[in-house]
What we know:
The protein has helices spanning 39-53, 57-70, 75-91, 95-109, 114-130, 136-154, 159-174, 178-194, 202-217, 221-239, 244-259, 263-267, and strands at 8-9, 28-29. It is mainly α. It has twelve helices and two strands. The chain has a two-stranded antiparallel sheet with strand order 1-2.
Amino acid sequence: SITSSSTLFPLSKPKLEYDEGMDHYQALFRLDNMWNENVDATILFNLARAFHNQGNHGVALDYYKQALTAIDSNQHLRLSVLYSTGHCLYCQGEMHRALQLYKAALSVANSLDISHQATCLNAIGVILYSIPDSPLEDGLDAFSKSLEIRQLCLGENHSDVGTTWNNLGRLYFIHSDYTKALHAYRESLRIRRSNNDSLDSIDVAATLVNMGQVFNQMEDYEEALEYYRDFLRVAKTHFGEYHRDVCIVTTYAGQTLHHLKYYGQSLK
């Protein structure tokens, strides 16, 4: 059936990922009729999303570019195209280009509901901490505004608020402010655990290992080891024994055991 183009339907991710809030606009657009001025842009965006979700970012970028040119007046569609283009560039490691696209998405979001601004600001913050030598103040400004809006619109305990707290913790960690990083991660962990039927989601796992890294930098190795072990327990249920991140955090645990002079366990 053909329904309104303003109606969206979700497109599920093909694989498990940790959520940084960088790929928020995944929903496909429906067509209201074949004479809609945005029909080409709608189909092009939907094609792009299909390739995007398969990890074929080069092809997706080409379709997003065509979709952007074809858009007439649908600002929600324009926002989705710009934001998704930014995510593709982020996945390809093109941080400066991704930042330009997320900022363009923010300009569109400013004319829409305020919650869209928070989504774009969160993504901009992640890009900023991914670019070496980015000023702490710029990232803090983006995350603080995103957090304020999300708490206002969604409440203190919404999963998106937990995502922004986690990203803010990462920013503080990169700039070696471990006390503030730990506070942000604890807020994220509390929210993420409260928003899942199971306490052991993959996003909970991401925050657990982040907290482990903070304690490691603070030379509290016993506490770091507990968080690494919690991560491994959760991650293995989702990824299995041989996932890359299981390997990485197992190495972290080994290094921590070495610091604690538990050489036999470390070697194992």
